[in-house]
Write a structure and sequence with these properties.
402 residues, alpha/beta, Rossmann fold, 8-stranded mixed β-sheet, 6-stranded parallel β-sheet, 24% strand
Length: 402
């Protein structure tokens, strides 16, 4: 189950090698991956959607919408879903479209929207593969940051012998295991602390002060660190996220800011780094009522006291080899506020979110961030929170040079 929990989007285009997609889907699922398949209409002449739907245990996507119901298939959502987009087979025609930004079908539209890496597996006759136009298109796609599993040599459907055969499904799976799993074990031996979600500050036995944090970003970061080989202590406030048994992630459930601080403090001396993604309440109620406060005609006054600043306390004692990453959710003067937090809390970098960005921050499955360093900023586009987590972890990898 080397691809367990990996989400693989498979694109199937119209070549005779499309029959190999059935074997590829079966092997991916056998290795624990979740697979969704997009087919071009012409690909359905070579292998039926029913075959790939049965093997993947998911619907196969072909059209932008169902003409009988008008139900829309969002290429944007598909492009955000996968950990990798594998196109196998990738014909000369579809390669040309992708290299030149054409998107006249769901598959190529999804390619242009994809936030994950794309892996192409070319398959065509040897003259088509060797043609200068195809080779230039492949070079262009490589320059875009795509990955290509070169076609193999052998007997082709035309009867000719030469390069053009799609790589065998077993080889593609081996590539994906290395690409998605093995090469990412760069943080083996490292221990990280990650905070996630909101805190709840009680007023009385039935009421509390909290915020809208879902915890999705912190959980995604914890899982990404673990995927790179780290041991992660995830200190989580109350969230509606079903805990997953992820190798390397130990979840510690807390409720209040003081509980989160005490749990985090117990790990400060033993960690290699901390990512403070939780939305910790700045204040708590000074005198919590032991009984439910009854409503009357008078105004209710609640006195608040300041909570410990977990990241600030870590910043005061962190060693030079430790890394500290903070989050800043701002509504105005965003960069200046983030840079002030960077200095005050001794962060190595700050992940800046803005409430002005659509479909980002609390509650969404997507986010848009700027990574703020003392002397530079790195802006990223809107992505799934899983992909944002990868961007953040990649910055950590640079810091550790591993």
């Amino acid at each position: 189950m080397k691809l367990k929990s990996k989400k693989i989007l498979l694109g199937v285009t119209a070549g005779i090698a499309a029959y190999k997609a059935a074997i590829l889907v079966r092997l991916l699922v056998k290795n624990g991956a979740e697979v969704k398949v997009i087919m071009t209409k012409a690909a359905c002449d070579f292998i039926t959607p029913l075959t790939l739907s049965t093997l993947s245990k998911n619907p196969v996507y072909i059209d932008f919408f169902d003409p009988s119901t008008g139900e829309w298939t969002s290429h944007v959502e598909l492009g955000m879903w996968g950990d990798v987009f594998v196109i196998a087979p990738a014909t000369a025609n579809e390669i040309a479209k992708m290299a030149n930004g054409l998107c006249d079908n769901l598959l190529t539209a999804t390619y242009l929207s994809a936030k994950c890496p794309t892996v192409l597996c070319p398959a065509m006759d040897l003259d088509m593969y060797a043609h200068k136009a195809t080779q230039e298109n492949l070079s262009k796609l490589l320059s875009f940051g795509n990955h290509i599993i070169e076609a193999e040599s052998g007997e082709l459907a035309s009867g000719l012998i030469g390069q053009g055969r799609m790589s065998e499904p077993e080889s593609i799976v081996d590539f994906l295991i290395i690409f998605l799993v093995d090469v990412q074990k760069k943080l083996s031996g490292k221990v990280f602390l990650v905070t996630a979600g909101p805190t709840r500050e009680p007023i009385d036995p039935v009421r509390y002060i909290s915020n809208h944090s879902s915890g999705k970003m912190g959980y995604a970061i914890a899982h990404s660190l673990a995927a790179h080989g780290a041991k992660v202590h995830l200190v989580s406030g109350p969230v509606n996220i079903k805990p997953e048994n992820i190798d390397g992630v130990e979840i510690h459930q807390v409720s209040s800011a003081s509980e989160m601080f005490e749990k985090c403090k117990s790990y400060f001396s033993m960690i290699d780094g901390a990512i403070f993604a939780a939305a910790v309440a700045d204040y708590s109620v000074k005198n919590v009522s032991t009984q439910k406060i009854k409503k009357d005609d008078n105004e209710l006054e609640i006195q608040l006291v300041k909570n410990p600043d977990i990241a600030y306390e870590f910043g005061k004692i962190k060693r030079q080899e430790q890394i500290s990453v903070g989050f800043a959710l701002e509504t105005q003067d965003e960069l200046n506020n983030a840079k002030a937090k960077l200095v005050k809390k001794n962060f190595d970098f700050v992940v800046l979110n803005s409430t002005n960005d659509e479909n980002a921050t609390f509650g969404y499955d997507t986010n848009k961030i700027t990574i703020v360093y003392p002397h530079k900023n790195i802006e990223f586009g809107l992505k799934s929170k899983n992909r944002v987590a990868e961007d953040i972890v990649n910055e950590i990898l640079k810091r550790y040079s591993v």
